[in-house]
Write a structure and sequence with these properties.
The chain is an alpha+beta fold. Among the domains are: 327 residues, Glycoside hydrolase 38, N terminal domain (7-stranded beta/alpha barrel, Alpha-Beta Barrel); 113 residues, Sandwich (Immunoglobulin-like), CATH 2.60.40.1360. It is 24% helix and 29% strand. It is built from 18 helices and 53 strands. A hairpin with a 2-residue loop joins strand 12 and strand 13. The structure holds 2-acetamido-2-deoxy-beta-D-glucopyranose and zinc ion (ZN). It comes from Drosophila willistoni. It is an enzyme of class 3 (hydrolase). This is Alpha-mannosidase. Its cofactor is Zn(2+).
Length: 1000
């Protein structure tokens, strides 16, 4: 009822209020401030999680109020109705996924009203990405994608007035430097957040250092971001939550016995004065909002109106407080104008400790299979985007399918999605959405491949369970199967491909009919043993493929002859027995049992790498590669915990190494060599080296993890080397730059690690962790986000899986105890080890490996047609001429007849150089008409990028007027008629450039 009333009123007010209003948005629409007063920027906002205790849709529609009363549609409805009543009122909208959904259900009138509100700066988009992404477990590619998506919707809908100027990362549990860098590269003027280690915060409050200038990159210039930490979480001051969810007193200002204006104003100002004391300028920002607030916005606004009225009334009696509705953008604008100087910040804000016993480092690893699935989603998204661009797909369904996966991937970046801090039913819903999204995009990829290759009727099926050697397409036979490989990287690459097959002999040929080296390798029995795995195939056909962009490989069954099935597997057979039902499999796998020489060692070696296994422990002992030999023991270890939860890893005693009683067998093939280890009842592993590949793969299988009412278990993989790392190690920031970590140390403060020495030294690992001394370097690359540390010199540990027994009290209300197929969750994944001589050559090789691991070949399966088609494969642009350090970051449909094209120099200032290349051939092969350069998100013309410049402490005289920064290079802009030399692109180390190509 109330809601209908609101709309009627809104229409009425539309006529009166909006007619003569001037369209000024952005900083020009900011409220006037008072130079000699404390200006209180009151910022109405609602924090709307894109899934957490309820699913995305449950939150949007206000469904399942028994779990949590929250309905985002009503929030936006009532906020709009309240904003229209008074031009002074302001509200920020943050999560574009919710706003987009709401918008799609609006009438034309309602849309017109919202347009006006946006054009007058009354409704201001802040943040503005699809979701408020997490900053620990996300990969930069997916963050950039989800900003591109959100900002594009805002730009398409509202133009420049819809463009957010300020980041709003108020809830993520720690903050990455790469996120700040991404904001800077998108042209944001600053960001605000609300979570920081409590010791850090206390010190910053004392030092007036809550607001700072973050130098967000070691390689990029012009990459500073103003960063502000809120005073007290993101909620309203205590006692001033005027929301229907809260019980705080309304402001009673009539002649009532309960009139409370005096005390309400007194208390509010005393809070504000405490805030003001801890910040540098005469402006303070007071957020007014919390999770899912403003569902009945008139209650909030009515009381805030009164608060403003009575606070400002005191000015006539000499009060120097000036209260008004504002936005984070307007607050930042005031700070910029204050010409103040600010402290420097260079590292990041991990880990986040909310008290001495609570470091939020568990979520770096929580829900390991979902974290991996999200990477699969990204892989399919990049592949489908590139393929659909190359094939110029224009079908509605194809576009829709691609857009759907983009949206779901945006949702997955949310700080309760990729983090694993949502309720189980919400996690299940994310899986459902992502699975649907992947299937749709796989269809788009298939359609493109039908256009691009000589198989116009190919099935091009994707097998999503290759990680456990299952593929429906080859389960009966791989005879006459065509495997089409798509390489999403710029440069041609060589990888080993594994196809699940029966124990049969196959021949693999390439498009020229040449035989490609292959072999049939037995799958570890622990994988065959998985209850939920259909046991149609027990082997993998392994072959080595080199691919520029797209290539077919043909698989044909051949008469075996015993000659090519020289599988040699040996076992130190004195340990635990292989389950009986696998005796037969073992027979098929030609297992030969060696009764052991316990004292000896087993050497597994190819032309690049030598591994030495200790026969008595069954574990890895030494690695030799890249001319370096180093003792590398790899073990599994367990933290037995009680009070850990989805967010927090809370140690309860020391790490316990799993016993040295590893049963192992060795597969000694020509292309691949594998050590299959049975480590404990619920841990096994395959250590693997491929001929010609300069890294060692550790493919782990962990679960079901046993727990009891007193004991949760968190499993880590532990590498012990002899490298004298002296407490120093390195972890990546969202898959891009590396940050130096020092055990027990932080950049600005002394951490309190008395209670949680390990958890407090954990850092997020999105792609890489490494340590080194003056001679040697040891790096571990992973396949999903995890947490890890170096607790002893020369050691690295990476947390793989966690099964917990209690909730940690931060809201999710469930113990993290995942089940799949009726059993505690089993997870599988890979760590890749590179041992090298220390130096920039080594780190550059790691970068290249990172790209290959993040974006491997996509595999598509078809039956070989009985008659050869006359269709010719289309010629594709070649990116292979790009300099070696150039990554094809994005190639995707943007608007109609527009393509977004991003390139990145992936080497940093120590590893690489400035590179130049010409993109005219690419432009031509995409039928380009015009090209323009934009901010990182693709929506802001780079020539329009103008950011606030802030003044550093200790850098000399203060400026006398406001300053701005502009892009340091001339934006590329050209059309078809221009000379090829106008299409030259230069990339500094770590630089990313984004272009929009208009085509015919
Ligand atoms: C902060 O960084 C700036 C720019 O790099 C530098 O000029 C200034 O000296 C630094 N200030 C302090 C206090 O270190
Ligand atoms: Zn949140």
């Amino acid at each position: 009822m109330k809601y209908l009333g609101g709309i009627a009123l809104l229409v009425a007010l539309l006529a009166i209020n909006i007619k003569d209003a001037q369209a000024v948005c952005g900083y020009e629409s900011c409220p006037a401030t008072q130079p000699n007063m404390i200006n209180i920027h009151m910022v109405p906002h609602s924090h709307d999680d894109v899934g957490w205790l309820k699913t995305v849709d449950q939150y949007f529609y206000g469904h399942r109020s028994n779990i949590q009363h929250a309905g985002v549609q009503y929030i936006i409805d009532t906020v709009v109705a309240e904003l229209i009543k008074d031009p002074k009122r302001r509200f920020i909208q943050v999560e574009t996924s919710f706003f987009h959904k709401w918008w799609s259900e609006q009438s034309e009138t309602s849309k017109q009203v919202v347009h006006k509100l946006v054009e007058e700066g009354r409704l201001e988009f802040t943040g503005g990405a699809w979701a408020m992404n997490d900053e620990a477990a996300v990969h930069y590619q997916s963050v950039v994608d989800q900003f591109t998506l959100g900002l594009k919707f805002l730009d398409d809908t509202f133009g420049t007035c819809g463009r957010p100027r300020v980041g709003w990362q108020i809830d993520p549990f720690g903050h990455s430097r790469e996120q700040a860098s991404i904001f800077a590269q998108m042209g944001y003027d600053g960001e605000f957040f609300a979570r920081m280690d409590h010791n850090d915060k206390d010190k910053r409050l004392d030092d007036l250092a809550m607001e700072m200038i973050w130098d967000a990159s070691e390689s990029l210039s012009n990459d500073e971001l103003f960063t502000g930490m809120l005073y007290r979480h993101y909620s309203a001051p205590p006692g001033y939550c005027f929301d229907v969810h809260c019980g705080d007193d309304p402001i009673i200002d009539t002649k009532s016995y309960d009139n409370n204006v005096k005390s309400r104003v007194d208390d509010f100002l005393s809070y504000v004065s405490a805030v003001a004391e801890n910040y540098r300028s005469n402006h303070v920002m007071i957020p007014m909002g919390d999770d899912f607030q403003y569902e009945d916005a008139q209650v909030n606004f009515k009381n805030m109106d009164k608060l403003i009225k009575y606070v400002n009334e005191r000015q006539s009696e000499g009060s120097t407080y000036n209260l008004f509705y504002s936005t984070p953008g307007c607050y930042l604008h005031s700070l910029h104008e204050s010409l103040q100087s600010w402290p420097n910040k260079t590292e990041d804000f991990f880990p986040y400790g909310s008290d001495t016993n609570s470091f939020w480092t568990g979520y770096f690893t929580s829900r390991p299979t979902q974290k991996r699935f999200e990477r699969d989603g990204n892989h399919m998204l990049q592949v489908a985007k590139q393929l659909s661009t190359l094939a110029h797909l224009t079908g509605e369904q194809q576009k829709e399918d691609l857009l759907y996966l983009r949206k779901i991937m945006g949702v997955m970046q949310h700080h309760d999605a990729i983090t694993g801090t949502e309720k189980q039913h919400v996690s299940d819903d994310y899986d459902r959405l992502l699975y649907d999204g992947i299937l749709g995009a796989a269809n788009t990829a298939r359609d493109a491949l039908r256009e691009l290759t000589n198989l116009p009727e190919g099935e091009f099926e994707s097998c999503l369970q290759l990680n456990i050697s299952v593929c429906a397409f080859t389960k009966d036979s791989a005879d006459n199967v065509v495997v089409t490989l798509f390489n999403p990287l710029a440069h041609s690459a060589t990888e080993y491909v594994r196809i699940p097959v029966k124990k049969e002999s196959y021949e693999v040929t390439d498009e020229q009919g040449r035989t490609v080296a292959s072999e049939v390798v037995p799958v570890a029995w622990q994988i065959l043993d998985l209850d939920f795995r259909s046991n149609d195939t027990q082997h993998d056909l392994v072959f080595k493929a080199s691919v520029d962009k797209i290539a077919h490989f043909y698989i044909k069954k051949v008469d075996s002859g015993d000659s090519d099935s020289k599988t040699l597997v040996k076992i130190n057979g004195h340990k635990s027995e292989v389950p009986k039902r696998f005796k037969k499999v073992h027979a098929m796998q030609n297992v030969e049992t060696y009764d052991d020489d316990d004292s000896g060692e087993t050497v597994v070696q190819n032309s690049l790498i030598k591994l030495v296994i200790d026969n008595s422990s069954g574990r890895l002992k030494t690695i030799e590669m890249n001319g370096v030999s180093e003792s590398v023991e790899q073990k599994f270890a367990v933290y037995e915990t009680k009070d850990s939860g989805a967010y927090v890893f809370r140690q309860n005693g020391d790490i316990k190494e799993v016993d040295d009683d590893v049963e192992f067998s060795v597969y000694d093939g020509t292309l691949v060599k594998e050590v299959h280890q049975q480590v404990s009842e619920y841990i096994s592993q395959v250590i693997r080296i491929y001929e010609g590949v300069n890294r060692v793969e550790f493919e782990w299988l962990v679960g079901p993890i046993p727990t009891d009412s007193d004991t949760a278990r968190e499993i880590v993989s532990l590498f012990k080397t002899g490298i004298s790392s002296d407490g120093v190690f390195y972890t990546d920031s969202n898959g891009r730059e590396m940050l130096k970590r020092q055990k027990n140390k932080r950049e600005n403060y002394d951490p309190d690690l008395g209670q949680q020495p390990t958890s407090g030294n954990y850092y997020p690992i999105t792609s890489r962790i490494a340590l080194e001394d003056s001679k040697k370097r040891f790096a571990v690359l992973n396949d999903r986000a995890q947490g890890g540390s170096s607790m002893q010199n020369g050691e690295l540990e990476i947390m793989l899986h966690r099964r917990l027994i209690r909730d940690d009290g931060y809201g999710v209300g469930e113990a993290l105890n995942e089940e799949k197929f009726g059993n505690p969750l089993i997870a599988r994944g890979k760590l890749h080890v590179i041992l090298n001589t220390a130096g920039s050559k080594a780190t550059a090789a790691e970068r290249k490996a990172e790209k290959e691991i993040h974006l491997p070949f996509a595999k598509f399966f078809s039956k070989k047609p009985s008659t050869t088609s006359t269709a010719v494969a289309k010629a594709l642009p070649s990116f292979d001429d790009f300099p070696q350090s150039v990554h094809l970051f994005s190639l995707e449909p943007f608007s109609d007849n527009e393509i977004l094209f991003r390139v990145e120099n992936f080497l940093d200032h120590n590893e690489g150089n400035v590179v130049s290349f010409n993109i005219r051939p690419i432009f031509d092969s995409l039928n380009g008409l015009e090209i323009r350069e934009t901010s990182l998100d693709g929506n802001l013309p780079l020539s329009d990028m103008k950011r606030f410049k802030f003044h550093h402490d200790g850098s000399g005289v203060r400026p006398t007027s406001v300053e701005y920064t502009y892009p340091t290079h001339k934006p590329l802009a050209a059309d078809k008629s221009q000379d090829a030399s106008d299409f030259s692109v230069t990339l500094n180390p770590m630089q990313i450039r984004t272009f929009i190509i208009k085509y015919e």
